[in-house]
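Format is sequence with structure; example below:
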Amino acid sequence: MRIKAVLFDRDGTLTDFDRTWGPAIAAVLRDLSAGDAGRLDTLSEMAMFDVEAARFTGPSPLKVQAPADYAAGWAEVLGEPDPDAMLARIEATLLDHCTRSVTPFEGVVDTLTSLHASGLPLGLATNGTEASARAQMAALGLAPAFSFLAGYDSGHGRKPAPGQLLAFARHTGIAPGEIAMVGDSLHDMHAAQAAGMIRVAVPTGAVDRETLARDSDVLLDTMADLLPLARGERAA
């Protein structure tokens, strides 16, 4: 089947989540703890994160959930009286730090630049905020490549629901079955399945290759392998 458009996940697919967001998450947890060591320990445990090392220690929910999802859990455990204000602080800190250490995986910039030059419509769907995604893609010089970009706060819902994916299909006027959804997580693959899109997985996130292979139509070794697939030189 010919691929007529490609929609990408961001974190773990285009950018290295740990290297990109580690310093930002450390700043968020320090801010929310306000010097309270017990509060910081609680948040760090929930986030599966080592603040001092600015790195994740396990399969953190932050890698797949939207800020509104994990912030709600944090607020409940901490007895935060104003969850909305807590979410606003988290999003403001993440946006402030989002371009400071944004790190694309090898081959990502060249691959997306080549796909864009070929005239293939490209989009991005993330469970992060739209503003942070736009800022990061601009910092990487990739803003012109995307005709569509959606975050969890863009009005289309968040993965694994298919709303963002179907919005991209409407935007392009291309049938979902002719669009490849490229991602690193089961959220991405399940959203693609629900939308009726071609499920293309990359093993650059936290999910192992065997699991991704079972839940995808195509498993790439690297992002550069997307080029022959998009050109029809490799069967989907």
Notes: Residues 18-97 form one domain. Strands lie at 5-8, 49-50, 55-56, 122-125, 148-150, 179-183, 198-201, 218-219. The chain has a mean pLDDT of 94. Residues 170 and 176 are 9 Å apart (CA to CA).
